[in-house]
Amino acid sequence: MPNPRIFKPEEPWQAPEGEPIIRIENVSKRFGDFYAVDDVSLHIHAGEFFSLLGPSGCGKTTLLRMLAGFEIPTEGRIFIDGQDMTAVAPYERSVNMMFQSYALFPHMNVADNIAFGLKQEGMPKAERETRVAEMLSLVQIEKLASRKPHQLSGGQRQRVALARALAKHPKILLLDEPLGALDKKLREQTQFELVNIQERLGITFIVVTHDQEEAMTMSSRIALMRDGRVEQVDPPRRLYEYPASRYAADFIGSVNLLEGFVLSQEDNRVLVRSEEAGIDLEVIHSHPLIAGTPVTLAVRPEKVRLQNAESSLPNRLRGVIKEIAYLGDVSIYHVELPTGKRIQFTQSNIQALAEQPLTWDEEVELGWPANSCGVLEQ
To answer: What is the pLDDT of residue 6?
Structure first.
């Protein structure tokens, strides 16, 4: 399950008077007859850690390259800090980009790689050396200054690339799959380091990633993309707890999806008939729904609980455990209902072998509260 980043209520995108540092207005990018990006509009505010999330081919990298100036939109406009930058060259934008491959110069040592852009801009040598020392300290690689890229690990090369991208003090840093080359443990560690660096510098970070947990951990907000369009834009917790579509619910984390139709609604309590579940299900939903409306109910596995005779949850299902995945901190169980539908639920492994574990082909009763289930209108 993703670990959503938590934010205070006074975040910049919630302030109506706040002017976004980036405005993407009805931007499309067409290659021949194919729309890689299709009528996308986004507002990104100064100081955000904003992620473009989605599967391969959804248009997120193309959108990032248009922000950098490496691609020109077929339609629409891009404003950076209030200026129309739609057709402005990359080197004239107040942005810098960290590439997925890191693109370090193999014949230069670490310090010279970091200093390269500063030297190109004509920064005096003394000032340049001071800035390089600041960047080496920022990413904690002071002892590697004289090494060549081939003498570095993947994580160290990633830090050098980040230091070089930050050395010019851009207003906006674009990162294309910045952690894709790292192993899982180093990637998780680096996620928090990137967040800390971004918060210390106050620079706007825009990250492209296909890794949902990476986006959930680092981002202030996430734009979930699909087939060149933006499916939903929200902070991580809201995207996880209140997906706007079946696609969003299914892409972010694990989810149980149960199809049905509305039987009735009284105030905010909705009764849904689901043949897949084999029972009528109760859900809290604030918007009015007409009887007969087809809906999909979304229940996260961690919301589903084992039940006993004393339990009073409204949504109760019986089934048989068919699959078990032990992940150390939690175990994931796949339960087959009499209808043939499978439901996932998780249990925390708080104490090692303290209780008799659940096992294959064991019959269990599951349940969840009415307010733990989302309603997705089809």
So the answer is: 53
Assess whether 166 and 154 both reside in one domain: yes
- pLDDT of 81 strictly over 90: yes
Sheet holding 95-98, edge to edge: 95-98, 172-176, 204-209, 49-53, 221-226, 229-234
* Residue 338 token pair: 């009499």
Examine the domain organization and report whether 259 and 241 are in the same domain: no
DSSP string, 162-215: HHHHHHT--SEEEEESTTTTS-HHHHHHHHHHHHHHHHHHT-EEEEEES-HHHH
As beta bridge partners, residue 269 has 266, 284
Helices (H) and strands (E) in the chain, counts: 8, 20
Please tell me whether residues 223 and 97 are part of one structural domain: yes
Plot region of 339 (φ>0 → left; ψ -120 to 50 → alpha; else → beta): alpha
pLDDT at 133 over 90: yes
Domain that holds residue 174: 12-250
Query: Using one digit for the tens of pLDDT, what is the confidence trace for 95-118?
Result: 998 887 788 999 999 999 999 999
DSSP secondary structure code for residue 252 in this structure: S
Which residues in 50-67 are b (16+ Cβ under 10 Å) and which e? bbbbbeeebbbbbbbbbb
pTM: predicted TM-score of the whole model, two decimal places:
0.88
User: Which whole number is the average pLDDT over 81-88?
Assistant: 94
| Residue 348: count of CB within 10 angstroms of its CB | 9
What CATH code is carried by the domain that includes residue 302? 2.40.50.140
Single out the residue of 305, 338, 332 nearest to residue 319, CA to CA: 338
Beta carbons of 103 and 161 less than 8 angstroms apart: yes
- Angle subtended by helix axes 154-167 and 184-201, to nearest 10: 20
User: Pick from 340, 310, 63, 348: which is nearest to 206 by CA?
Assistant: 63
Q: Is 5 part of any domain? A: no
Is residue 4 included in any domain, yes or no?
Answer: no
Q: How many CB atoms lie within 10 A of CB 43?
A: 18
Per-residue pLDDT band at 12 (split at 50, 70, 90)? low
How high is the mean pLDDT of the chain? 90
